[in-house]
Structure formats: C-alpha cells, structure tokens
Amino acid sequence: MLRRLLLLTIAMAPLAGGLSAQDPEEQLRELQAQVDSLRRLDLERQLDEMRRDIAGRTREGSDTWLELNGWVNFDLIYDFKRVDPTWEATLRPSTIPTTPGQYGSDGKTIFSVRQTRVGLSGGMDTRIGPAKWWIELDFFALGADAGRTALELRHAWGEVGPLGFGWTWSNFIDIDTWPNVLDWWGPSAMALNRNPQVRYTWALPTGRFALAIENSNQSLTTGVLGETSPGFVDDIEAVGRIPDLTANYRHDWGDSHVQIAGVARQLSYETVDEPDNEPKGSEFGWGLNLTAVLQTVDRDRFRGGIVYGHGIASFINDGGGVNLAPDPDGGALALPSLGLTAYYDHYWTDVLSTSLGASYNTHDNSSEQQSFEIESVTYGSTNLIWAPSSNFWAGAEFQLGRRLDISEIDAFDYRIQFQVRYTFVEALR
What is the pLDDT of residue 156? Predict the structure, then answer.
C-alpha cells in the first residue's frame, strides 16, 4: 500500500510546480522520510490504544491484572474523658474505666496515622473460573503489639471460582452494614471480625448463599474462681477443638439487600498441668445475624442489624463479653449476647454527607462472674464529611460511649475526631 502511494506521488510530481525542478532521487528520499514519519505516528497510535486497552481491561477479562491500593489517613482526636491508653486512638466502650482516675485526669489530645492502609490485589482467568486475591495491611496493631503504630495484617485472601480461602471477614458478618464513620473501631454491637477460613459460595439469581468453616475464636472468664483460687484458674484455658461452621444467605434488589447468617460452634475448655486436664468440658454455641442495607432517597442508606446467640461474644465488635463463664453447678455456660445496630447515611449534597446512629450490646451474665465484668456497652456517633473527589475526604465526628458493669456502676466517654484521608489506586499491570 505504501509502495503504491510512493509511485503515484512520483508520477504526479510534474504537476506540482514546487517539485518539478527537484531530482527524482531527492524527491524519493523526501517522500520516504514522510512515509517513515507516518509509520512512526501509526505505531504510536497503536501503542496508545494498547495502553488504554490494558488500563481499561475489566477484572473479568482473560488477562492478569495487578493493583496497588490504599489510603493515607490522619486523625486528630480530643478525648474529653479517658480510655485505656492502649486503645486511645479509637473509642471502644469496653475500655472506658469505671474507676475514676484509673487512666489519669480527664482530657487528652491524640494524633494518629494508624488507619493508614495499603493493599495489593490481583487476578486472572482459570479453567474453573476467575481467580483473584488480595493482601491488605494497616498500622492499627493488635494482639501483643496493641497500642503501637505498626503493620497489622487485615486480609490475606484468595478465590478461585466459588472457592475462597485465607484470612478475611467472617462469613457470619455483613461488612456492607458498616456505616460511613470516621472512628476505626466503630459501632460496638455489630457482628464484626476477621477469621482464617475456607468458604464456598453459590451465586443465585437474586443473591448468594455461602458456607464456611472458620477458625474458632475462644474466650472465657473464670469469674469468682479468680478470687478464691487464683493459681488454679490461671491454668484454665479455652480450646478451639473443631472449626466453627458458618452460613449466610443474601437477597439483593437494586441498591438494597437483606442477609441472614448463622454459626454453630463447640466451646471447649481444659486445665493444663492437671491430671487428665480436669476440669474440662465443652458447650454448644450458636448465633443468628440478621442485617440489611436499605436505599431510601437517592444515595441515602439505612444500615442495621440484630445479632443474638449463645457463646458468640468473640464475633461482636466490642461488646466486652466472653463466650464461656462458670455456672453455679461447677460447669460452664455459653453466655447469651444481644447486639443492636442502626445507622443512617444521609447526603446533603454531592460532596457533603452525615452518618448518624447508635449501637447497643448486652449479655445475660452468670451469677458466678465478678462485679467488674461488663453487663452492656452503648456506642453512638454523628459526623459531617466533605468529599470533593473520589480519592479525598475530610470530616469531623462526635462519638459517645457508655460502659455498664455487673455491679451497676457505669461510665461515659465522649470525644471529637477530625480526619483527613487521601485514597490511591494504581494499576500495576
């Protein structure tokens, strides 16, 4: 095609006054240079099209993809009261002291970047369906590092078709009911935890159904035995002998959904360094979690849930309870727990929004528990968030928490939190 264009141009050259005096060889060289330039432009256009195709490739496509994502987060908090210093960068009602002055006098300013988050995700197509994975960390250290600004694993999860495995949100919870709040710990009574698990999900015409076996998070209190036999009770431990079995069914319509989830679990305990590890035993634990996200007007959403069960305190975000407690007959009880959460996300404009709501968790405690153990916790918050773009927001939030002990002694904490967050997403492949 290009050769024909050269010959045609040379043949018409005498008709062009500006070229008639030029040597044919020189004329041919100029035309060849123009063709080379056109080739380069065409190649660059093809490369641009390829780059756009790669950048816009959907995750359901046949090629692999890799993405870096996360956010940089800064919090400035003023606590009008005090909480356990280990958890001062968030409001956990269970850490509010019911003994005045336990953590110092009222009032403290806290600076924190612990909510900063980074993640890496990727995927590809396989013969048995799409495969995807993600790893996510933040700087809100837990466990032995609690209270420090240090890397903490949030998710390490992979899926191949309907099969998922790794560490992520429990199959018992509904993360979509998490409201648009600034506080890291958030509503105390909602079912919210992450677990190592293996999960299988069936896609349905209007939703999904999933079954999972999960690591069994155990907790217990020795109650008044801690006062009468402190050395003995130090050897009593909770034991997860078999995995928890969880299931959930979700029904979607439009931007709304309802979900019901259940868990069945064995709650075991034993005494180490004692003959035959006695006393030992186990109780049956179970729970139900009914949740919903309901679109009301435009972008506004109601988010809420009711969770109830026996021995499910380790699934509750911050109820302050335990799965097992001693009963008067010398055995153990799977303690009943009830959690209620209701939040409303309202958009004043395209860039201004407010989330308002409350959460309440209570336990039916054993008569053998100690008076300073928690009876109930209450949490509430409201905020104003300005989000002028999809990757930036700034906001202010007021939070209130209450802790009530078995002794009927209670305590409150309230604080205000200012936050700035920049979100990033970068396609690496």
Answer: 98
